[in-house]
Amino acid sequence: MALISTVAPEEATGIIKEGYDMFFKNVGSIPRPMEVLSCSPALFELQLKRIGYFAKHPKLSFALLSHIRYLAAHSLNYSFCMDFNRHMLKKQGLADEDIQAMEKDPAKALLEENEIAMLVFVMKAMKTPGSTTTEDIAQLKALGWEEKEMVEALAQGVGMIDHSIMMEAFQIDQNCML
User: Fold this and answer.
1) Residue of 140, 78, 69 lying closest to 106 (CA atoms)
2) Record's InterPro entries (predicted)?
């Protein structure tokens, strides 16, 4: 049982109701991390804005962002986002074998060359932050990435950390959606 009280869909008002309605329409359910954030309408709204920003990102594709979120969740053993993003990857045509290969080596992801480089960079930075080099940055720039996009891609990965900690700390059931 959860340690905190969250807003149930039938009790939602204001920005929480707007967000819940958007998730029901686009995803079919409410992701548990958003349920946790329903305790703080201000944080909930910030997360909605973040989701909206990345959904319309001009260079970080939905496929790349799904790969980043999946591998970040996998590295954290964050089951909810692993399951959710595995589902997204499968909807994009990846098979279990493709996902398993990528888990072992992010360079085996079925993405464009520049996106693979970004994925590899994000995972390297998450696993050993101090190991990134000027060569890593130069390689990404040579593939057409700007520093802004490097920061945003890494933010997508490390964003899994706060959600995974909150889900565990507040003992939110990670095996289902609201």
Assistant:
1) 69
2) AhpD-like (IPR029032)
The Cα–Cα gap between 151 and 5 comes to: 34
Number of Cβ within a 10 Å radius of residue 25: 8
> Mind giving me the DSSP string for 33-64?
HHHHHTT-HHHHHHHHHHHHHHHT-SSS-HHH
Fold for domain 62-170? AhpD-like (1.20.1290)
Q: For 99-127, what is the mean pLDDT?
A: 97
> What does the alpha-carbon distance between residue 78 and residue 22 come to, in Å, rounded to a whole number?
24
Phi and psi for 171 in degrees, rounded to 5?
A: 50, 50
What letter does residue 177 receive in the DSSP assignment?
Answer: -
CA dist list (Å): 27 to 23, 24, 161: 5, 6, 22
pLDDT digits (tens, 9 = 90+) for 71-106: 999 999 888 889 989 998 999 999 999 999 999 999
User: Could you say which DSSP state residue 74 is in?
Assistant: H
The domain limits of the chain are 9-56, 62-170
pTM of the entire predicted model: 0.91
Distance CA 107, CA 120 (A): 6
Tokens of 62: 């939905």
d(CA 87, CA 90): 5
